[in-house]
Write a structure and sequence with these properties.
By secondary structure, the chain is mostly helical. The protein has 4 helices and 3 strands. It has 2 domains: 1-46; 47-100, no CATH class. The longest helix has 41 residues, at 2-42.
Length: 100
């Protein structure tokens, strides 16, 4: 019994360390992406059109839609979407994220 408890503790500890490391790597990647975009804009290596392409690409991964577009596409009411779906506000517009 003690051996099983030890194995479970070891597995739990390893899993926790892995999650922390993975989280650190994800944050590091995000920070590098943001930093490179900022550098690209400051050094005139990226144009406004380049930024629009980046926003469009990330929007596709998020399956980002306005509340009304999401309601129409999924055949549900605007209020149903507004009250029961994950939303974010971006540029003073509410969007639904549906990328599951």
């Amino acid at each position: 019994m003690a051996k099983k408890k030890f194995n479970l503790l070891l597995i739990t500890r390893l899993y926790t360390q892995f999650k922390k490391l993975n989280h650190m790597q994800n944050n590091e990647l995000k920070d590098k992406i943001i930093l490179n975009i900022m550098k690209g804009m400051e050094n005139d290596m990226l144009s406004n059109n380049d930024l629009i392409e980046i926003i469009e690409a990330t929007g596709k991964y998020l399956n980002l839609m306005t509340i009304s577009d999401y309601a129409k596409q999924n055949g549900i009411s605007y209020n149903g979407v507004k009250n029961f779906r994950e939303k974010i506000e971006l540029f003073n517009v509410n969007f639904v994220i549906d990328n599951d």
